[in-house]
Design goal:
Blueprint (H helix, E strand, L loop, with lengths): L3 H7 L15 E2 L5 E6 L4 E7 L4 E5 L4 E8 L1 E6 L5 E6 L3 E4 L5 E5 L3 E8 L3 H5 L8
Antiparallel strand pairs: 1-2, 2-3, 3-10, 4-9, 5-8, 5-10, 6-7, 6-9
Length: 132
């Protein structure tokens, strides 16, 4: 291919090497903090919860994969939170687009969230439900 897009996406200089420990954590409500890394079509985040921190029920167009590195989160899935799932260290929850969900930290927790496409509300700081 000879288009500019193809050249850019195959150019080794376009790769980024990032160290989590060098990123500044964004403070949210309670003890919630997060660090974000984005590309054109994906986003990955480290999210830290203090025990008892919660993420209120919400939904979004973005597919979400949550991988718990440390701790445990209780998720409530569905319009009325009718399905409860505890996700512990070493476990993954896949949340499809537009599925209402909430979470509460059962203990201090570090998770990795992956989104496709990137969360524009997180990038723009318009995610009020995490800032109250």
């Amino acid at each position: 291919m000879t288009t500019a897009t193809a050249i850019k996406t195959t150019d080794a200089a376009g790769a980024k090497h990032i160290r989590w420990n060098e990123l500044k954590a964004e403070k949210l409500k309670g003890g919630l903090t997060r660090k974000l890394i984005t590309s054109d079509r994906m986003m990955i985040a480290h999210v830290h919860f203090d025990k008892g921190d919660d993420v209120p029920r919400h939904s979004h167009e973005n597919e979400q994969i949550t991988y718990i590195l440390e701790g445990a989160l209780l998720f409530k899935l569905g319009a009325d939170g009718e399905r409860e799932v505890i996700v512990r260290a070493g476990e993954v929850l896949v949340i499809p687009s537009f599925l209402p969900h909430s979470a509460v930290a059962l203990e201090d927790t570090l998770d990795v969230d992956v989104f496709n496409p990137p969360r524009q509300d997180w990038l723009a700081g318009t995610d009020a439900y995490l800032r109250r």
